[in-house]
Amino acid sequence: GDSWGIFTFLCAALCNLPALPALNCTEELGAGQSIQKTYDLTRYLEHQLRTLAGTYLNYLGPPFNEPDFNPPRLARAERVPSATVDLDLWRGLTDNARLAANYRAYSRLLCYLRALDGQAGTAELRHRLGHFCSSLQGLVLSIAGVMSSLGYPLPAGPAGPPASPGTPVAPNDFLKKMDDFWLLKELQTWLWRSAKDFNRLKKKVPPAVVTLRLEARGF
Fold first, then answer.
1. How far is it, in rounded angstroms, from Cα 135 to Cα 150?
2. Quick one: signal sequence residues (predicted)?
3. What domains are defined for the chain?
């Protein structure tokens, strides 16, 4: 009867399903998501550095831990990558140029911070520096991922500071502390500016989208 006919029709339809294309939903992890993760990491590092800098400056003692201490930048500190570039000039750079500058700067800053980690006088401070270095290493890798997702090559040359056997050692304890002070100060400025860079960049690059892909079954 009618019920048998409907059952026969359904069986025939089910038998033919393997020949039909299957509708699969896949999420493409593109540049937008990579940029968002890098932005989130810069903000996390900003927050983390505020606590670390306060602890380290207290370890250095006065005048480095005084709120109004603002010394001129010494020539020795120029080996630390400076973030004190005119903002209009910085914004006038291409996305590729800014990303490359961020990648090079954090790679070098990471090397200097690891040196601090080995010199810190307390176990707690070494632990905090080690944790921060691990997070900063993640930022370097994340920036590399953003550049790759946008089709930009990584900057040529060594990621860390130039291997110069003649790099002068601070002649006294005060100048050594001054080097440490400027390292933290420049790192704070880099992270502040990088957060703004990635916030602008994520507005230019659309987020990851969900796409529908047809795959033929049985082929």
1. 23
2. 1-22
3. 28-161+170-204 (1.20.1250.10)
CB 159 within 8 A of CB 153: no
Residues 6+ apart with CB under 8 A from 175: 74, 76
> What residue has token string 């420049």?
186
Q: Which amino acid is at 128?
A: R
Q: Find where tokens 């006294």 sit.
A: 172
The beta strands (E) that lie in the chain are given as: 21-27, 210-216
Name the 3-class secondary structure at 216: strand
Stretch (H or E) spanning 91: helix 87-91
Question: What pTM does this model have?
Answer: 0.75
pLDDT in tens, 102-160: 999 999 999 989 888 667 778 888 889 999 999 999 999 999 999 999 999 998 754 54
d(CA 25, CA 144): 28
Largest Cα separation within the chain, whole Å, is 103
CA 128 to chain CA mean position, Å? 18
